[in-house]
Fold this protein.
Amino acid sequence: MDAPRISLVVPAYNEAQSLPALFESIDVARARYAGGAAGIEVVVADNASTDSTAALARAAGCRVVHVAKRSIAAARNGGAAAARGRVVAFVDADSRIHPDTFDAIDRTLTDRAVVGVTGVRMSRSSLGIRVSTLVIDAISRINRVGTGVVFCRRADWVAVGGYDESRLFGEDLQFLVALKRLGRARGQRFARARNAVAISSARKFDRHGDWHIFTALARSARWWLTDRAAIERFARRYWYEDR
């Protein structure tokens, strides 16, 4: 079997409710890919799920990799380690990708780019969500990082050691910084894909409130000065236990 060009890695923990919408969007993008549907593989990194995540992924034709360590970074690394594509892309399980995602990856990941992102917008809008995303996007652009579908050459994922599995959160930003550092030595840059923005679930806003990002940032700043262990406790509740 010929190796695919792009491997899309989906880290997933108990995401049976979210995956069907993501898989539907992937099917559309795969059908529109100029390189042909066979050029795309989907690897679901099942991060010790207790629901039907793995069964849904297999039924959708995805490769399933079981990752026992409960860590978003470990799940991403486990999926990338099993990937057969020359390019690896990462997307959260509660997302939907743009129909032109795979063509946009090919257009963006030129010899001058070491890593790229598609950008993201939320699945619903409100004043609080708009303000939150505007602030986060401004910070991302100033620091030349981003989110959405993140993609790079698999060889470069290997070169930087993948995602830092010692981190409960922020591993995605650290990964981009490491790739940018690698690319700088080769005259390569961070790149933003055009016209392929992913859609991310607003479920955190639904659960915690449309302005909760600002209260979380304020608490984290206080904890950084007074109780750094509280940051880890919050991270576990927010990213790992909040279902």
